[in-house]
Amino acid sequence: MDANEFVNRVFQNLPAGPITRFEFKSWRSGDRPTSEGFGLGPVPGADPDKLIARVMDVDRYVGNVDYVAECRSVADPNYVRPQKVRFFQRIGLPVLGDIQMELALVDLGVRDGWRVAAWSQIDDATRRLDPKRGARSAYNVGCWLVKPGIVGYALSSAPSKEDVGMLKYAAMTKGADASAPQVVKANIEGMARWASRS
Asked: In angstroms, rounded to a whole number, what is the distance separating the alpha carbons of residues 52 and 192?
């Protein structure tokens, strides 16, 4: 899944008016089992450059970003910091278990007044991961959007069907859609807290 196409869809769905409280919006795209969506909310004092710097700091996610059990950059000459980074990530989900993937994260600079960083899954590398260490992600694409005092987080993801049973797959797709607003809000608040400490 292409990160730029996803970012385009996010921008097509951004609210036109001022953002004075947390807002969440989702939509279906193709025949994927989960919706795409984003949350936006006011975060007093949020600095776009500082927050995007934290987003790009993948080697320090553990302990600073909720539910990240393991995260490390992967050496690759096609991804040169600070603008691009390739990384492995394993998320520990309460009750549901772990899900893992390799991602490419890119600082896209400024678009329509927003600082944007977006990621997409590296499919072949993700398929090579050991499923005994957690379900592999079937797809994972998203972005962060930041203006002074406003932070947004957008995501579309699902586990690989072959790595989980039917009940867990339903919980991780339909359940993910149902819990998305709360999860997105928590991610925004957590990243903003980390950025404010730097």
From this structure: 10
The first and second tokens of residue 63, run together, are 């302990």
pLDDT tens-digit series, residues 21-34: 999 999 998 888 99
The token pair that represents 87 in the structure block: 């990384």
- Work out the burial of residue 85: count CB atoms within 10 Å of its CB; fewer than 13 is exposed, 13-18 middle, 19 or more buried: buried
Two tokens at 27?
């939509």
**Mean of pLDDT values over 9-15:** 96
Long-range (24+ apart) CB contacts under 8 A made by 87-92 are 87/58, 87/59, 88/129, 89/58, 89/61, 90/133, 90/134, 91/67, 91/134, 92/67, 92/68
Q: Residue 154 — very low, low, confident or very high, per pLDDT cuts 50/70/90?
A: very high
Please write the tens of the pLDDT for every residue from 88-126. 999 987 767 799 999 999 999 999 999 999 999 999 999
